[in-house]
Amino acid sequence: MTVAVAVLFGVAALLVGFAKTAIGGLATISVAVFASLMPARESTAAILLVLLVGDVMAVWHYRHDCDWSLLRRLIPAVLPGLLLGALFLAVVDDDLLRRVIGVLLVIMAALQLLLRWRPPAAGGLASGRTAAVGAGLAAGFVTMIANAAGSVMTLYLIARGVEKRRFLGTGAFFFFGVNVCKVPFSASLGLFHTATITLALVLAPLVLVGGWAGLHVARRISQARFEQAVLGASVLAALALVAR
Length: 244
Prior knowledge:
82% helix, 0% strand, TSUP, transmembrane, TM_pro_TauE-like, membrane
């Protein structure tokens, strides 16, 4: 591994930690970095382990802020989405997977720009069961193939008018649960290797440093700035992956 590659992995790990405790969309930039530096299928397993480190930190710090009623609406549709994503991973090659990841993120970026331009009233259409089922399916599928469901959750929670700490707490528990569920799927596809696990262990301390920085930022940022930041970060992440 060259110094430049090591630095990129390190920055990606810092961004994962920061995203988990502050600005969620930034984690997708890390997904793009990993996909650029590794074979696409292996990168999904490597970044999954790194994300789980950040998930544990976020769940601990936001353990009192989760909106369980929102999660109960989303969870039933997530598992079918994970299954569809696992089936898709089993049949596609790396080149097609990269293109699909890029297209999905561009679509989500466009939706987020639309949401930023025409923000709905709190709740709105996103309060219905259909929206919850759609968000759950999309989050399960996208997170299985690209570890990039942060954009889906950002769309859903911002459209619901969720307050900053409730946003972070709900997202923390959602992604921890989803990522734990993804481990056996990834393992069954043979995506975990000694090198992948070693890389995640080496990067874990940097995830914690990024998470610590994110906690300090989250305490100081206003609700309006928070919404702008999470939407903007998701758009940037989508463009980064497509342009790589």
